[in-house]
Amino acid sequence: MRAMLLRAPDQQLTLSDLPIPEPTQGEVLIRVEVCAVCRTDLHLLDGELPNIPYPLVPGHQVVGTIAANPSADLPLGMRVGVPWLASTCGRCPYCNSERENLCDRARFTGYTQAGGFAEFLLADARYALPVDPHAPAGAIAPLLCGGLIGYRALRMCGDAERVGLFGFGAAAHILAQVLRHQGRPFYAFTRPGDDAAQAAAGALGARWVGGSDQPPPEQLDAAIIFAPVGALVPASLRAVCKGGTVVCGGIHMTDIPSFPYDILWGERKLVSVANLTRADGLRFLALAAEIPLETEINLYDLEDANQALADLRAGSFTGSAVLEVAVS
Questions:
Q1: H/E element holding 303?
Q2: Domain 147-272 -> CATH class
Q3: Residue ranges of the domains in the chain?
Q4: Are the beta carbons of 144 and 83 closer than 8 angstroms?
Q5: Stretch 31-51: mean pLDDT, rounded?
Q6: Is 132 exposed, middle or buried (0-12, 13-18, 19+ CB in 10 A)?
Q7: Band of the pLDDT at 328, cuts 50, 70, 90?
Q8: How much is the pLDDT for 319?
């Protein structure tokens, strides 16, 4: 099968011919239709995540169909989505308290096991989520990471009314639609001078749009940081009111600079989001169909994965990059 392989940090992916894996009991073999590209893939390329098992096939926003299933609990041909969380132990205190996202023995698609930048991948059948068989596959893929993490981050904000979004990439594009659907005003903070991202936020109904170096016109009840920039933590704490919540939505962030205690004081809360649960996935995908959510996608061939990653790093597009893997 064709696959894009990461052999070492700070290297480009190489197009490789790998054997098609064979599923064992509890696994399914998935024929990949598409796989969206995520900023976490850039962290892998840059060697910023711990214990990366090179060589590795990245990709963790996978849409495809069941090609083989030894246990037959998912029918052949069924379309599924494979997210970042690939499997958990099912026995630890976290798994037994509806917090499987924190399992110490969790495995992750496209990180600790092979991902979707390939024509086939193996997945734990328990973590293959049913998705709309009729919607375009490329429109579904960005929901499986940016959408899910944004949804979990928003849940951590409770019933906050005024919500700030720091960084307006793929995740914020999706979450803005959820907030609009819920009738909650949102405020978009972009890189200073990023006119395209600011225009996209305005088109989605942002109450206010500005650079991350600007204060909002009024204090916020919560802020979600999608950009992996530690300096945004004190900026967002200054933007929220007393009792407000700041949620860090990324898996990696640059160092957070020191800040005065008084911007945290007043029962402000600073929390992070780690991974997702299957329940998150099922609830969010149902909500996505109900709204319905629209994703802005930029399509690339599998062989052009390096260009997609470079364009993501440069901020050359709005929305999400999606690799078309299946050969028609």
A1: none
A2: alpha beta
A3: 2-143+296-324, 147-272
A4: yes
A5: 95
A6: middle
A7: low
A8: 85
Question: Band of the pLDDT at 327, cuts 50, 70, 90?
Answer: confident
Q: Is the separation of the CB atoms in 239 and 28 below 8 Å?
A: no
Distance CA 129, CA 126 (A): 8
- Do the domains 2-143+296-324 and 147-272 sit in the same CATH topology, yes or no? no
Residue 259: closest CA among 277, 246, 276, 243 = 246
Q: Which of 165, 183, 181 is nearest to 173 (CA)?
A: 165
Nearest alpha carbon to residue 147 among 197, 84, 241, 56? 84
Q: What percent of the chain has pLDDT over 70?
A: 99
Burial class of 40 by CB neighbour count within 10 A (0 to 12, 13 to 18, 19+): buried
Strand 14-17 and strand 2-5: pairing?
antiparallel
Q: What is the pLDDT of residue 140?
A: 96
pLDDT tens, position by position, 264-308: 999 999 999 999 999 999 999 999 999 999 999 999 999 999 999
Q: How does residue 73 score in pLDDT terms, banded at 50, 70 and 90?
A: confident
Q: How many CB atoms lie within 10 A of CB 117?
A: 30
- The single-letter code of the amino acid at 77 is G
Contact 134, 199 (CB under 8 A): no
Rounded to the nearest 10°, the torsion over CA 287, 39, 56, 143 is: 10
Listed in sequence order, the residues at least 6 apart from 91 whose beta carbon sits closer than 8 Å to its beta carbon are none
Alpha-carbon gap, residue 275 to 35, rounded angstroms: 18
Res. 315 pLDDT band, cuts 50 70 90: confident
> Which tokens go with 270?
């600073």
Dihedral (CA of 15, 16, 17, 18) sign: negative
- CATH assignment, 2-143+296-324: 3.90.180.10
**Which tokens belong to 226?**
């999608």
